[in-house]
Amino acid sequence: MELIKDQSFLKKLPLIRSFHNAYTEPNRVNRTAVLTEEKITHPDSMPLITLRGYIENSQNLGSGQKYVIGFRSYSFGDMATIDLISLDRKNHRDIASEHVRRMEWPLAENVSGSEKFESTYHSPFAVTGGHLGVADNGLLRFHGDSSDYTDYFLWSKANHVASFIAETLGLAVENNTRPGKQFMQKLLSFLQDHKLSDDFYEELAAKSFTDGERVTGQQLSAMVTMKSADRVLEEDGDFVSILVNELTGEFSSKVMAANAARQLRDQ
């Protein structure tokens, strides 16, 4: 696994430039990096995961501040982003909704109250979360889970992924970061094997059912939205029509089959 942290290079990348433009407040942690596989002979086949982190340094950070992880794939797995966002907000849904809005997803505009939770169901970001605090030794500590989104994340857990991202972005972390690193390696391998495939999102959901502990409704909905958004760009089609087609078509049937296989396995 290779890490690219040269900020002068990274700031030229659209996915990183848009993130820095969205989070401009001073006195905050705002860092990015890109992960890829080592020893890839053909650059076009390189899997890329962009890590983006933003932590608000509020008065509540020391005693415990909520955070969310947001995953999005682009162009059928050609690249992906994993965002670590911690804001001084009451609920995880408030953080997730604010992040989706800042990423300029159209359906996230002008929502409030319970609509914030619902809006994340109609976004292309698969969300999980937990709590972030500062330990007695001054290190960041990721713990707990989200009552809104649980701590399940593909085939890992939120705190594992968050700890690895934070350390990779140069922050000192108390948690063991090895599980998060192992997850990232597996995700890179998955992207390399399945990127640009028409059934990329079906395979992603199936692997999450097979290797993970749980896949939430929000995460499945986000995968459908990711695929629909990719199809809009590929086909220049109507988003709503494509979304309805995916909800009632192949994606839905493959996900139900994977879920049924998981339930039989666990009996």
Description:
- With 267 residues, the protein is α+β, with helices and mostly antiparallel strands.
- It has one domain (2-196).
- Helix content is 44%, strand content 21%.
- The protein is built from 10 helices and 9 strands.
- The protein has helices at 7-10, 14-22, 92-102, 115-121, 158-168, 178-194, 200-211, 217-235, 239-248, 250-266; strands spanning 2-4, 28-36, 48-56, 65-74, 79-86, 126-134, 140-143, 152-153, 156-157.
- The strands form 2 sheets. It has a 7-stranded mixed β-sheet, with helices on both faces. Strands 8-9 form a two-stranded antiparallel sheet.
- Strand 8 and strand 9 form a beta hairpin.
- Helix 3 (92-102) packs across helix 4 and helix 7 runs parallel beside helix 10 (250-266).
- It is globular, with a radius of gyration of 18 Å.
- The mean pLDDT is 86.
| Element-by-element helix/strand order | EHHEEEEHHEEEEHHHHHH
Any idea what the radius of gyration is?
A: 18 Å
State the total count of DSSP E strands: 9
Coarse morphology: globular
Q: Unreliable stretches, pLDDT < 50, 5 or more residues?
A: none
- Distance between the ends: 37 Å
Assembly status: single chain
Mean pLDDT figure: 86
Overall structural class, as computed from helix and strand content, comes to: alpha+beta
The fraction of residues in strands falls at 15-25%
Record the strand order, biggest sheet: 1-2-3-5-4-6-7
In the residues, how many domains can be counted?
1
* Percent helix range: 40-55%
Number of helices: 10
Reported for the largest beta sheet, the result is: 7 strands, mixed
